[in-house]
Amino acid sequence: MRRALTGVTFDLHAGEFVALLGLNGAGKSTLLETLAGLLAGYGGSCIVQEKELRDYARRDLSRQVSFLPQWQFGPTGFSVRQIVAMGRYPHSAGWTESPEDQRAINAALEACQCAHVADRGFQTLSGGERQRALLASALAQETKILALDEPSAHADPPLQASLFSLLRDRASQGNLCIAAVHDINLAVAFATRVVLLHGGGVIYDGKVDELLASKAFAAVFGPQITVLQDTAGRSFAAYSQRLQA
Amino acid sequence: MNLRTIGLAIVCALLALLLSPWLGPEPLNTQALLHCDPAEWNIFLELRVSRTILALLAGGSLAAAGTVFQALLRNSLATPYTLGVSSGAALGAVLAICFRIPAISLCALAGGLAVLLLVLRLAGRGAPFSAHALILAGVSVTSVCGALITVLHSYAGFSQSFSITSWLIGGIDALSFTTLAWFTVAVVPVWVLLAWYAPAWNLLSFGDTWAEARGLPVKKFSVLGYLAGSWLAALTVSFTGPIGFIGLLVPHFVREAGGPDHRTLIPSATLFGAAFLAVCDALGRTVMSPSDIPAGVITAIIGGPGLVWILSREQKGAV
How much is the ipTM here? Predict the structure, then answer.
């Protein structure tokens, strides 16, 4: 079995919105799945709320960490509301939804701007709408930690900004959001901290503002990506090929 | 949860229970029944009611098992027989017929459960209980069982060959009320268990990672679902032979009518499946009276075109 990550050590804190950056296969999904308790075979230690991850019962961990997996869903006849309601499974006692469940479901639908499609079939939605519904399900879980694998996949730029703004708000309310992101500018614009994975380890862990100027960034993304500055002096990443043309 | 669909299913099952015993090759003499004629009551209870109860229990069990298998395997073409339980039961029954062992049903049950354990063992290696591994193991074991049945069939004598063919078609026969009581005790609690865990099947039908991340112990519930579904299928097949299409068609039909929520799907499919098989059995003993067409033939005649119709509706997005 291949090791995806080795010697990865860092602390995550409430109030942070951490963007996990890295090339395909860098270990972003592995790290998030480990944090969500889906990969029990990790070495070393992973402590969530002062308790080792392995020691959590499955349902107890899902009350602490909600996880949005990468897009991998086949055909389904469920409505958006039914999918969002699945997020209440760690809290619910059985068949019926309590008033507390209903409140959490409605709040998550509102937060992800999908209340208007709540009764529509998930299958009938566009890619961006589906992603919002899946994120709403993760929010309905009402955990302090949100681990999200490409939460803005399939979303158009305004929706991406809206979703990341929502996640930043969640972080500012005392939650921890950690998300695998491929759009560097999106990470720079909204995250409060960046962790850059490369070669099976962490090669940058720090402030967003300093990421684009770091050697680690250049080592991973150069020479395809060039860092430019806008008129206000803010750095952003651009494709080098377009500049050369 | 769609209470209207569940209510409709209850009504259908009750109607099947109340009306099916009155249908048969010869009309019952109601005057004789009212005057407590022992011979007429014997026909009514020992042949008609007993047969109706077996059809209800068998149909409900096959439909409930099919629903859970389709959720666990995330494959709308999965049936209670996908894991090879039916072919194992058939092999057990054919062995019993060939070697003149009188307890055919017990041999069929043993064959079905042995195959289930073999499939779980084969699929448990590597990535444990992945849908792909289970289907592959089930298909492989089914092929081997089918080949062994063909070999046994070809060496069987005339009367044994007739018995094997009759058993493999699948049908409903009258059983003693004691046997029916044992059958009821063995399957109805499993129906309740499957319905109770409906929220878990909802999560699993959407994906293993999704379910695990929402707090469901996926491996535990997958094994529970496979064991419960296979138990229902093996037990049913041991009494009726392999009756096709109910475990495939009924969950599809109910999903189209009442949605994919297993809180609706499990109880409704169980009750509709029960009613469907009771009606098929009643049709089988009346449409070409005095010949008795096996219920398995009727379910196939209705089920084949019915499934094509449902799939064509799904493809057109008409629902």
Answer: 0.87
